[in-house]
Structure formats: C-alpha cells, structure tokens
Design a protein that fits this description.
This protein is mainly alpha-helical and about 240 residues long. The chain has 10 helices and 3 strands, in the order αααααααααβββα. It has a 3-stranded antiparallel β-sheet with strand order 1-2-3, with no helix packed on it. The longest helix is centred in the middle third of the chain and has 18 residues, at about 145-160. The chain is elongated, with a radius of gyration of 19 Å.
Length: about 240
Amino acid sequence: MIREIDQELYKACTKEPADLNYIEDLLKAGADPMGRIIDGYKDKNFLYPALVYEFVGAGDDSPKDFYDMTALFLRYGMDIEKPETDYENPDSYNPLWPFGFYSGENTLKILNLLLEHGLSSEAAGQAWGHAIFDYFDVWGELEDDFCYEMFYYTIKMIMLIASYPHVLNADKQLQDLIWFSQNTYDVKNFRNWNGYDFDVDTGKCSRGFPEVYRSIVTIKEKTSGLPVWKMGLGISPNEANE
C-alpha cells in the first residue's frame, strides 16, 4: 500500500538541504522508512532502498546527512531485514546490494551504523558478496591508482563487516575469504578502518595482468607500520605459499 506520508518522507529526504527536524516529525507521525512509495520500478519501490540506490550510488558525493537520516530511521524502528515484499521478489530491492558497488567514507559510516544496530550476517553478505563477485568475475583489473583506491575501500568494508562477531561467526564464507584461521590479530580493531595501510601482491594472478582475483593483501597498522593481517582473494593460504 502506498501512503501519502511515506511519499512525503521520501520527498523530505531528497530535498537539498534535508530538514532533519521535519523528517523526524514525519517519523513521529508514523511515516515508515521502509514504506512503499511507488509501483512498477523495483529500485525505487520502497523508501530506504530507494534512498540507498540514489545516495550510496553517488559515493562520496552522497549527502553527508544521509548518515543522520539513517540514524533517525533506526531510532524510529526501521528494520531493513523485514521488507513489505521479500527481497527475493523481483518487485523488491535489497538496500545492502549497492554497498558492494560504491565504497567510500560516508558509505562505510552508514554500514557501520547498520552493523551497530544488529545487521545480520545474511544482510551484510549482500554487500561484501556482491563486491567480491564483481571483482572476481566482472571488473576486477587493477589498472591504476584509482582502481587500487576503490579496492582498498572494499577491503575496508569487508574487514569492517568481519569486525562484528555476530556476523563473522555465522559466515563461514567470510571467514574463508579473510583467512580468519590464519590470523591472530583482534579483528574488532578494523572498526577503525582508516588506521591501516594495504599492500597488494598480484604475483599469483593467473590471467596475465594485475587483478583482484588471486591477489594477496597484507594489512599494516599505520601507527606501528607492522603487518597485522594477511588474506588472499580467491586463493587459499596453501596456494599462496606454493
């Protein structure tokens, strides 16, 4: 069902600059951050997924107050894991999906906020899984400094997600991806995602050019310069050591 108050909330959120006081008034009046706002176009059918599609897709050009909007939505009970229409339905759109495309500082802050509010391993897997699928099979070439920068943001996103035990302990694929059993550093430290540098070794890449697939990442603390974590993307520790 499409409600006028939910459409008004969407308009308020997309207005520049957003009036956070008015947004909160609408939430107090019963607006639903996950409410249906239009029919017939799955990326924009529901309010918060539509905002994620629009704002997260803008990367670091996204409105900084989208973080504040998300915080308000969560305060007033938003649960992105209980959509009106199941995400398996072609009429629906999982709001975590775009996080796999566009990693940036503002995106990481919003993802961290969702994780702090109990985002499940299944939902978080939509973000990191989408990113890794694309890097492995679609556009994972490390051609220049820009490609490396985007890759570093993805590593920050993956390690941020892994820093939450309720997610990591429930996701064997994530454990395998980051070589969890091979490392001893406290993974919770990666919530400070800007405290690290990254070295990427592409010597094991098998298709004749530097790429994410089969690259080996060493994460170093900025403060000490010491390596604290090592992981391979699409390559096992045994293969990496051959």
